[in-house]
Design a protein that fits this description.
Largest sheet: none
Keywords: Membrane, Transmembrane, Transmembrane helix
Order of helices and strands: HHHHHH
Strand content: under 5%
Number of helices: 6
Distance between the termini: 9 Å
Radius of gyration: 18 Å
Structural class: mainly alpha
Oligomer: single chain
Low-confidence stretches: none
Mean pLDDT: 83
Shape: elongated
Number of strands: 0
Helix content: over 70%
């Protein structure tokens, strides 16, 4: 194993975060994104334009968190921790 590979290993905090994050369902993040879009629409219909824009912008971060969650479930942290060769 080269020194370069060792320099990119994850720390214990990252491993802990990934372990806890992997327990969450990916549907949770999708549901949160859809809910924020619905809430944004409702706020817009209530003529609260600024609030609607603010809440509507939450959808993208929720979807990104969902992607992170999915990647953690598929890949986890360093592959060398899973499959030492």
């Amino acid at each position: 194993m080269s020194k370069l590979q060792n320099d990119h290993s994850e720390g214990s905090l990252t491993k802990s975060i990934e372990h806890e994050t992997s327990k969450l369902s990916s549907a949770l993040f999708l549901g949160a994104a859809i809910t924020s879009m619905g809430a944004s629409l409702a706020l817009r219909l209530m003529k609260r334009k600024n609030s609607a824009l603010f809440v509507g912008q939450w959808a993208a971060p929720f979807l990104l968190l969902g992607m992170y969650n999915k990647l953690v479930k598929l890949e986890g942290h360093d592959k060398e921790d899973k499959d030492p060769r």
